[in-house]
């Protein structure tokens, strides 16, 4: 195994996932549509009062993006499990963690990034201050990447089970709590004109740690879940 | 005794708390006992089936 | 020969553990009930009412042991789960998976008694207090572990997957607690005075400790009972299980 | 680095290898070894554990009794995976990718044999002209051929093939046999399962019978 084999395999996996997503680009837009629909419902439920909507806008957008990601998380490994591609990943000579890292990056690019890009628009519709917009974008970039990494690890654990959608939400909630708290805390602080860098720094530190650990954990989880 | 049960006016909170403590743990014990009974019955049934298979039926 | 190592390996064998658990279970039950009786008498009768909370503080004797046990059992489960994932012995899987429902039960008790205590002290059954919120998240973690365990058709595979989740939860739990505390100070501003006198009187302390130890023995007894049943079902087809089933009053 | 072990070392050694689910035995205990250049046939009825044996050897399942060494290492270890390629019931082809993209993905993950040429291999496999078709438009037999073409491009010296003849017509069976012959001539080895209904490769080293 030469040194070039690792980047070659990583790129092959990444390319595969991006091409597959492109061939089914309609599906990739569904989470975005879901986020738009959910955000639209809030003013109808709470009334169009600007001050109230502006106050909750950051939190609403964060939670909506989280839910939209959760919605599609269930399917991350389903196709690969059904056609046997997942077994080939397990059997490939490269470390499984490397392939999982490619899978995670691809999933973030395909699912999370569109959501992050549409989020400022949703926040604007709810009346978030322009000052807080960059903070929201930054918080979403960090939070979506973290949830992507953690969520795929948990999805890997449920691969061998039937009907895992609801279970996945239950498993992800405790991991999502700190992410939501810090991300929403930063946005809230920015809205009040307070310093917001500290919670984002914590998120960034957690992301750095997760970038290293999550692919390894994901590989372990997959081997556990498929060893029947 | 009545004063003890009244708990200084807090009976509505103290006694339910103790009831919850013992009811939930009681449910834990009961669930284990029922599960043990079910597992034993299943295993006995399994063994009976296996024994029946091993001894060929003599009656026509 | 290292005596401890020998004992460890013996306990790791299911038929031996089954016998051992059956032998110590009545003792654990007896001690738990005795201690609970003493603790309840001390807590409900002997301890004087709190000068601020009156008799409402007596909820402490069930609430605090349950809250401590919810964390203690998680610790035991996480250690067993770690062993189960790394070395894959059957007994560690069984102990981790049978601990989870007991831990969830204690967490539920801590939540309900906590909110029953909250009504007279804070005027509301539920408040997003840092400890109650953390306890709620702990309940979700327990439920996730139990749910994942039962989602697999093969119980051993389910046990390993759920053990892995329990390890993830063990890392996550302090982070949740820390973030919830931070969030709490961020949004509430005023600090809510947490239950209980700040310096606890000895007449209140000893029943609390006795109840806590009683809860630990209850956990031991329940765990032994649960593990015995789990072993019977996991090891079905083995000779020792056949002997046990033939000897037990089946169907009754 | 050469992927081939020293010629004297067998590719696979199994000692008392067995697998059971709960208390039911699936196969084994088995003792066998597989040398370089040898194509071995695993025969047995449905449910005799052929697939399970291959899954244990590829490291997807942990054996319950005995042990196996694959290319001198534990099954599923990095060293074993580096020299091992498997083909199962599920082919692992992505339906939305073209045949050529699927082949490129395989060589991307496993590397390509030095003398391998994807285009020539597709022609050899009877898939000339299908290179740019999405795999989902292919028939079952054509999918199998595509998977075999992908397998033959890889440098792995050890093949674990589960029912490679299934879904194939007479030409397809001849293709499998030709690929096996070429693989053995290069010094590779293969463990091939079959329920025994087809014209099997003639150069079989030995046959392993599973089940009673």
Structure description:
- The complex is a heterotetramer of chains A (228), B (60), C (252) and D (212).
- Chain A has 228 residues and is mostly helical.
- Chain A has helices at residues 5-23, 25-46, 50-73, 78-82, 85-91, 96-126, 133-157, 165-191, 197-226.
- In chain A, helix 1 (5-23) packs across helix 6 (96-126).
- Chain A has nine helices and no strands.
- Chain A starts with a helix and ends with a helix.
- The radius of gyration of chain A is 18 Å and the shape is globular.
- Chain A has one domain (5-226).
- With 60 residues, chain B is an all-alpha fold.
- In chain B, 82% of the residues lie in helices and 0% in strands.
- Chain B starts with a helix and ends in a 6-residue tail after the last helix.
- Chain B has one domain.
- Chain C has 252 residues and is mainly alpha-helical.
- Chain C has one domain (32-46, 58-231).
- With 212 residues, chain D is of the alpha/beta class.
- Chain D is 30% helix and 24% strand.
- In chain D, helix 3 (99-110) runs parallel beside helix 5, helix 4 crosses helix 5 and helix 5 packs parallel to helix 6.
- The N and C termini of chain D lie far apart (42 Å).
- The model of chain D is unreliable at 1-6 (pLDDT under 50).
- Chains C and D meet through loops of C and loops of D.
Note the topology.
The complex is a heterotetramer of chains A (228), B (60), C (252) and D (212).
Chain A: H1 5-23, H2 25-46, H3 50-73, H4 78-82, H5 85-91, H6 96-126, H7 133-157, H8 165-191, H9 197-226
Helix pairs in contact in A: 1-2, 1-6, 2-3, 2-6, 3-6, 3-7, 3-8, 6-7, 6-9, 7-8, 7-9, 8-9
Chain C: H1 3-11, H2 14-46, H3 60-87, H4 90-122, H5 130-151, H6 155-188, H7 202-234, H8 239-247
Helix pairs in contact in C: 2-7, 3-4, 3-6, 3-7, 4-5, 4-6, 4-7, 5-6
Chain D: E1 12-21, E2 24-34, E3 39-43, H1 50-58, E4 65-70, H2 78-82, E5 84-87, H3 99-110, H4 118-124, H5 140-153, E6 158-161, H6 170-185, E7 189-194, E8 206-209
Parallel strand pairs in D: 3-7, 3-8, 5-6, 6-7
Antiparallel strand pairs in D: 1-2, 1-4
Helix pairs in contact in D: 3-5, 4-5, 5-6
Brief overview:
The complex is a heterotetramer of chains A (228), B (60), C (252) and D (212). Chain A is an all-alpha fold and 228 residues long. Chain A contains 9 helices and no strands.
The profile of the biggest β sheet of chain A is:
none
**Largest inter-chain contact set:** B-C, 31 and 39 residues
Mean pLDDT of chain A: 91
Q: How would you sum up the major sheet of chain B?
A: none
Counted up, domains of chain B total: 1
């Amino acid at each position: 195994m030469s040194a070039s084999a690792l980047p070659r395999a990583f790129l092959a996996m990444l390319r595969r996932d991006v091409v597959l997503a492109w061939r089914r680009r309609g599906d990739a837009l569904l989470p975005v549509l879901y986020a738009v629909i959910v955000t639209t419902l809030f003013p109808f439920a709470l009334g169009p009062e600007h001050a109230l909507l502006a106050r909750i806008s950051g939190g609403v957008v964060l939670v909506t993006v989280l839910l939209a990601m959760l919605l599609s998380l269930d399917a991350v490994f389903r196709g690969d499990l059904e056609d046997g591609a997942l077994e080939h990943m397990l059997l490939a000579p490269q470390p499984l963690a490397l392939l999982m890292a490619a899978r995670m990056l691809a999933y973030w690019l395909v699912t999370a990034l569109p959501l992050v890009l549409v989020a400022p628009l949703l926040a604007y519709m709810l009346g978030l201050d322009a000052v807080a917009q960059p903070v929201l974008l930054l918080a979403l970039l960090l939070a979506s990447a973290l949830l992507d990494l953690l969520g795929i690890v948990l999805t890997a654990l449920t691969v061998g089970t039937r009907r895992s959608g609801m279970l996945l939400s239950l498993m992800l909630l405790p991991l999502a709590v700190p992410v939501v708290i810090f991300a929403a805390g930063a946005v809230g602080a920015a809205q009040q004109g307070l310093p917001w860098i500290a919670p984002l720094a914590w998120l960034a530190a957690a992301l750095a740690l997760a970038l290293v650990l999550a692919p390894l954990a994901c590989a372990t989880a997959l081997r556990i879940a498929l060893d029947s | 005794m009545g004063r003890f049960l009244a708990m200084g006016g807090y009976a509505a909170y103290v006694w339910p708390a103790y009831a919850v403590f013992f009811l939930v743990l009681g449910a834990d014990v009961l669930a284990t006992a029922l599960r043990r009974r079910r597992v034993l019955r299943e295993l006995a049934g399994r063994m009976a089936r296996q024994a029946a298979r091993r001894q060929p039926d003599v009656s026509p | 020969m290292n005596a401890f190592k020998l004992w460890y390996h013996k306990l790791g064998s299911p038929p031996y553990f089954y016998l051992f658990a059956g032998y110590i279970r009545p003792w654990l039950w007896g001690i738990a009930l005795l201690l609970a009786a003493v603790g309840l008498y001390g807590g409900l009768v002997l301890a004087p009412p709190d000068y601020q909370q009156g008799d409402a503080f007596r909820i402490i004797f069930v609430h605090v042991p349950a809250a401590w046990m919810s964390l203690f059992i998680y610790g035991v489960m996480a250690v067993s789960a770690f062993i189960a994932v790394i070395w894959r012995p059957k007994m560690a899987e069984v102990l981790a998976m049978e601990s989870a429902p007991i831990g969830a039960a204690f967490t539920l008790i801590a939540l309900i008694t906590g909110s029953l205590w909250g009504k007279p002290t804070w005027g509301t059954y539920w408040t997003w207090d840092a400890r109650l919120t953390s306890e709620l998240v702990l309940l979700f973690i327990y439920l996730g572990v139990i749910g994942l365990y039962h989602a697999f058709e093969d119980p051993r595979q389910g046990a390993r997957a759920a053990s892995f989740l329990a390890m993830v939860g063990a890392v996550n739990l302090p982070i949740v607690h820390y973030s919830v505390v931070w969030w709490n100070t961020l949004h509430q501003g005023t600090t809510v005075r947490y239950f209980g006198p700040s310096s606890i009187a000895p007449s209140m302390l000893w029943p609390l400790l006795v109840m806590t130890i009683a809860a630990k023995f209850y956990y031991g007894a329940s765990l032994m009972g649960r593990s015995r049943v789990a072993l019977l079902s996991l090891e079905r087809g083995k000779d020792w299980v056949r002997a046990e089933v033939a000897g037990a009053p089946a169907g009754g | 680095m050469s992927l081939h072990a020293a010629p004297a070392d067998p590719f696979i050694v199994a000692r008392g290898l067995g697998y059971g689910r709960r208390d039911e035995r699936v196969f084994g205990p088995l003792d066998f070894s597989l040398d370089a250049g040898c194509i071995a046939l695993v025969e047995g009825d449905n449910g005799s554990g052929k697939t399970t044996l291959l899954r244990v050897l590829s490291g997807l399942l942990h054996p319950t009794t005995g042990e196996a060494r694959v290319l001198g290492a534990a099954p599923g270890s990095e060293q074993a995976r580096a020299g091992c390629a498997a083909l199962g019931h599920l082919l692992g082809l992505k339906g939305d990718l073209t045949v050529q993209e699927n082949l490129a993905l395989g060589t991307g993950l496993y590397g390509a044999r030095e003398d391998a040429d994807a285009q020539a291999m597709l022609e050899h496999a009877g898939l000339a002209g299908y290179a740019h078709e999405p795999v989902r438009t292919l028939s079952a037999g054509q999918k199998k051929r595509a998977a075999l073409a992908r397998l033959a491009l890889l440098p792995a010296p050890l093949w674990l093939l589960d029912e490679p003849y299934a879904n194939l017509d007479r030409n397809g069976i001849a293709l499998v046999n030709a690929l096996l012959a070429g693989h053995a001539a290069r010094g590779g080895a293969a463990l091939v399962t079959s329920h025994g209904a087809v014209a099997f490769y003639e150069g079989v080293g030995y046959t392993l019978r599973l089940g009673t």
